[in-house]
Amino acid sequence: MRRRFRAQCLQGGMCNMDTAVKFPTTPKAIRARALELSARMSVEKAFQAIVRNCLDQIEANETGVIKYHDVESLHQMRVGLRRLRSALGMFDEVLSLPVALRQELDWLVSQLGPARDWDVLAGSTLPRITNTLDADAPLVRVQHAAADKAMALHAAAGAAIASERYQNLIGNLERWFDERGWRAMQLPADKVKLKMRIGDFARDILEKDQQRLLKRGRKLKGADPETRHRVRIAAKKTRYAAEFFASLYPRKTVRPYVKALASLQDELGLMNDASVADGLLRQLSEGDEELKDGTGFLRGYLASHSRQGDGKLRKLWKRFVPLRTPG
């Protein structure tokens, strides 16, 4: 019943105003709520709290994506999806999501990713360049073409979120979650692990993620885009784990750690945006001869400034201090 009512609201059906959420004219993108875990929680209880937190963030941004094609709502839905996939990966050794649901999550990623990439190009990367230059006609044409592409992909993303396929995905995820479907697929040893307290499990996850990041980070000097991308992914996973388990550690210890990870991830993200932008600009030029001059200039500009960012990235890496987890 809950899913049927919700689907009708999302698809424009009549909702009981006593129970339906009233959305403002301008949508408000929903970030993840602060997550509070207790050291006395079992691994299973902590997993439930984390997944519920991620699902809430995803579902809370549906209306902004469907009805308003809102840039920030789509971004926050995508963040919630990335957090969910990261959480599922963290707990994969003791419980597993059915393969069919994993494949549907991959489909959802493919529906949101392109719109976000073009949003960043049209709304962030290009304005950052043109604000420092004279916006001549070739660059303006590229900006307009990128904005048109972003708008079209937002419409496609909204249609995907309003679709029956998405509704089935969320409904099946909620059912698997509510019925604790992972228990049916577990070995006896896994069931024992789920009853353990979360502290030891969290420490092992943080140490493993941090070691992966440190290993990849040693290759940052003079790194190519693919190597930087691997470091960015490792930093993102480590940051998500640190945020999930932050309430288990002293605030004065974990906050600077998460802040340092965020700064590192942001800088790596900017460099990755430039790499992604190069591919998107190439797509634009292939589809329209009038855009070749503008896209060619912008690709050269991005390549030049990308190399200049290496120094700042190395400084951020040197400032990164690994978290010491009590053993």
UniProtKB/TrEMBL annotation:
Domain CHAD span(s) in chain numbering: 40-322
Protein name: CHAD domain-containing protein
PROSITE patterns assigned to the protein according to its UniProt record, in alphabetical order: CHAD
Database matches in InterPro entries: CHAD_dom (IPR007899), CHAD_dom_sf (IPR038186)
Pfam families noted in UniProt: CHAD
Organism of this sequence: Massilia violaceinigra
Gene3D superfamilies the UniProt entry points to: CHAD domain
Top-level division of the source organism's lineage: Bacteria
